[in-house]
Specification:
The protein has 86 residues and is α+β, with helices and mostly antiparallel strands. 31% of the residues lie in helices and 28% in strands. The strands form two sheets. Strands 1-2-6-5 form a four-stranded antiparallel β-sheet, covered by helices on one side. Strands 3-4 form a two-stranded antiparallel sheet. A hairpin with a 2-residue loop joins strand 3 and strand 4. The chain is globular.
Length: 86
């Protein structure tokens, strides 16, 4: 199941979930907390903090906008960016 989602294209882009993860790493030099909600078919990226690295919801949102990836912001459990994969 995980493999299918890694190779799934993000709607309205030519970017797969796997490629997006690589782009995020190139941009921030670290991986934020990322996971897939398989029931709702969406990809979620949470605020993540390492020594000298902060990957915030705002930075993630700007990055998604730069790539023309439609996303929404969530404040339910933690600040995160949600990308609908439908």
């Amino acid at each position: 199941m995980k493999q299918k989602h890694n190779h799934k294209l993000i709607p309205n882009t030519n970017v797969t979930v796997k490629e997006f993860k690589e782009l995020v790493f190139e941009k921030f030099k670290a991986y934020p907390l990322m996971y897939t909600d398989y029931k709702k078919n969406r990809f979620i990226i949470s605020n993540t903090f390492y020594d000298n690295i902060s990957i915030t919801q705002h930075k993630l949102s700007l990055f998604c906008k730069k790539l023309n990836i439609k996303h929404e912001l969530s404040y339910e459990y933690s600040r995160c960016v949600i990308i609908d994969l439908n």
